[in-house]
């Protein structure tokens, strides 16, 4: 099940002060807007590389049809808000909370359906079934695992120092360090590596 971001996290895993300290710059350098943008981009890059949601955020997963078990694409899942579908008239309908259950185990949270649930026919569209859910390690930056936060700092430092092109040697070194830090946290097809 693919997903899109509905509500972004309220804050970033790295503060501007932490990024400034890592970059060895001060507010007087006048790069706060640029560094703030790098923090957000580094979080998004780490989330994309690991299939994780780092801080609490709302996502909407979607699929073309119902399955008896539907894995949610971004972990860790905190809760499921709703399960909806487009009926054969292309009208959005809501599945009763009595008809499905949330299983939070393994690498991905999953939605299962009660035995007597009769899957409705859906309109032919890529987002015919939609699951809105809350994902993330928590609300505080300290909830994000330290290796992921450090990978973000490495990315921020590299992008701050190399605003345009990057040498082949630097291109090899930084991704290797970032990949080393992120790999234990990466989720593949519903399974941890």
Describe this structure in words.
The chain is α+β, with helices and mostly antiparallel strands and 193 residues long. The protein has 4 helices and 8 strands. A 5-stranded antiparallel sheet has the order 1-2-8-4-5, with no helix packed on it. A hairpin with a 4-residue loop joins strand 6 (100-104) and strand 7 (109-113). Helix 2 (32-50) crosses helix 3 and helix 3 (146-161) runs antiparallel to helix 4 (168-182). It is elongated.
List the defining traits of the structure above.
single chain; 193 residues; five-stranded antiparallel sheet; three-stranded antiparallel sheet; 4 helices; 8 strands; 30% helix; elongated
Topology:
Blueprint lengths: L1 E6 L8 H8 L8 H19 L6 E7 L5 E3 L5 E10 L5 E3 L5 E5 L4 E5 L15 E7 L10 H16 L6 H15 L11
Antiparallel strand pairs: 1-2, 2-8, 3-7, 4-5, 4-8, 6-7
Helix pairs in contact: 2-3, 3-4
Shape: elongated
Biggest sheet features = 5 strands, antiparallel
Structural class: alpha+beta
Rg over CA atoms: 20 Å
Strand tally:
8
Low-confidence stretches: none
The amount of beta strand, in percent, is: 15-25%
Mean pLDDT reading: 89
Q: How many angstroms does the end-to-end distance come to?
A: 19 Å
Provide the succession of SSEs: EHHEEEEEEEHH
Main-sheet strand order equals 1-2-8-4-5
What is the tally of helical segments? 4
Helix content: 25-40%
């Amino acid at each position: 099940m693919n997903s899109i971001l509905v509500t972004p996290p309220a804050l970033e895993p790295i503060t501007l002060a932490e990024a400034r300290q890592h970059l060895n710059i001060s507010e007087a350098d006048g790069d706060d807007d640029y560094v703030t943008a790098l923090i957000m981009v580094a979080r998004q890059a780490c989330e994309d590389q690991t299939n994780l949601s780092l801080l609490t955020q709302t996502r909407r997963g979607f699929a073309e049809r119902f399955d008896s078990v539907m894995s949610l694409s971004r972990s860790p899942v905190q809760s499921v808000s709703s399960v909806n579908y487009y009926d054969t008239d292309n009208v959005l309908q809501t599945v009763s909370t009595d008809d499905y259950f949330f299983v939070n185990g393994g690498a991905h949270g999953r939605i299962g359906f009660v035995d007597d649930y009769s899957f409705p026919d859906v309109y032919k569209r890529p987002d015919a079934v939609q699951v809105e859910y809350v994902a993330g390690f928590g609300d505080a930056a300290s909830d994000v695992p330290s290796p992921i936060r450090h990978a973000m700092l490495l990315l921020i430092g590299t992008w701050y120092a190399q605003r345009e092109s990057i040498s082949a040697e630097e291109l090899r070194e930084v991704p290797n360090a970032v990949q080393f830090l992120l790999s234990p946290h990466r989720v593949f097809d519903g399974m941890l590596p």
